[in-house]
Amino acid sequence: MASGKADRPGEFALIAALFAPLSKNAPGAFGLTDDVAVLAPPPGHELVLKTDAVVEGVHFFRTDPPGDIARKALRVNLSDLAAKGAAPIGYMMALLLPDWPDMAWLRAFVDGLAADQAAFGLSLMGGDTSATPGSLAVSVSAFGYVPAGAMIRRAGAQVGDLVFVSGTVGDAGGGLAVLKENKSVPELIARYRVPEPRLTLGPMLRGLATASLDVSDGLMADLGHIADVSKVRIEVDAAQIPLSKALRTLWGADAAVRAASSGDDYEIAFTAPPWRRADVTNAAARSGVAVAEIGRVVRGEGVVLLDSSGREVAIARSGYTHF
């Protein structure tokens, strides 16, 4: 894309023209005319806060639709709120712009945010815009609330608990793979570009899940976080990992193992006692989000992937790491 910096107005004019309208339903944002915003949770609730960034060349391609980039930047944060059982209220955003995004690109970016604000019932409450000599980056801080004391932490998994995951696993990794190979599998590419935060399911897990997180770095890596802070061992049955037909077609017999270590799924992985299995099934049905039972919590440490005979399956890496 041709350089667009000359096509862009100054910082404050840009904020007034494009981003201030995104704050119109948030009185505490003051129309983005102040340095800060004011936010109070409903009585008897606590705030849940999350910050994540997406960076060109790491989390998205420059050629991705700008609205999809915006939606991914917001949704990866909403996914964390969902896994904590929180309902979103608003967000702040820092946008680091190189020379190339022009006004048409920025309008499409803002349209993506506006669409998700309408879909998820939240508003922009502030942030920052800055030029950068490097890659395009978007950092979002999302805010949600839960009833006091009801947030679902990573720590809490108990020996004897069952392990569950929402949706299907590995689709985003498959989407990234086909994009890198200049192939087209639309359903997988869509999962990579625009994740689906499980905001309906998440709050239904309050008081049900003993531990929960969103699957961002990879199923095995993220379950490893639960195992670590809960001081338990998690065993995952490879054959029970839910896979889409498109991913099975793409990766064949290796699909489950590759999916287990693929990132960017943004599904919810959680643990719950066996006697709550029916409640999990009911929550899945009421939320409209499929949930699969994929393993168990036992004594020990770490996380392992097991084949149908109970033997440990070797995986090259458990998931994505930035460093």
Question: What does this 3D model show about the protein?
Answer:
The chain has 323 residues and is α+β, with helices and mostly antiparallel strands. It folds into two domains: 9-147, 2-Layer Sandwich (60s Ribosomal Protein L30, Chain: A), CATH 3.30.1330; 162-306, PurM-like C-terminal domain (Phosphoribosyl-aminoimidazole Synthetase, Chain A, domain 2, Alpha-Beta Complex), CATH 3.90.650.10. It contains ten helices and ten strands. The longest helix is centred in the N-terminal third of the chain and has 18 residues, at 66-83. The protein starts with 10 loop residues before the first helix and ends in a 17-residue tail after the last strand.
How many separate domains? 2
Q: Using only CA atoms, what is the Rg?
A: 20 Å
Largest sheet: 6 strands, mixed
Strand content range: 15-25%
Shape: globular
CATH architecture label name of the largest domain: Alpha-Beta Complex
Task: Please count the beta strands (DSSP E, at least 2 residues each).
Answer: 10
The CATH topology of the largest domain comes to: Phosphoribosyl-aminoimidazole Synthetase, Chain A, domain 2
Question: In CATH, what is the class of the largest domain?
Answer: Alpha Beta
Element order: H for helix, E for strand = HEHEHEEEHHHEHEHHEHEE
Please, what is the average pLDDT? 94
Percentage of residues assigned to helices: 25-40%
Considering the protein shown, what is the CATH homologous superfamily of the largest domain?
A: PurM-like C-terminal domain
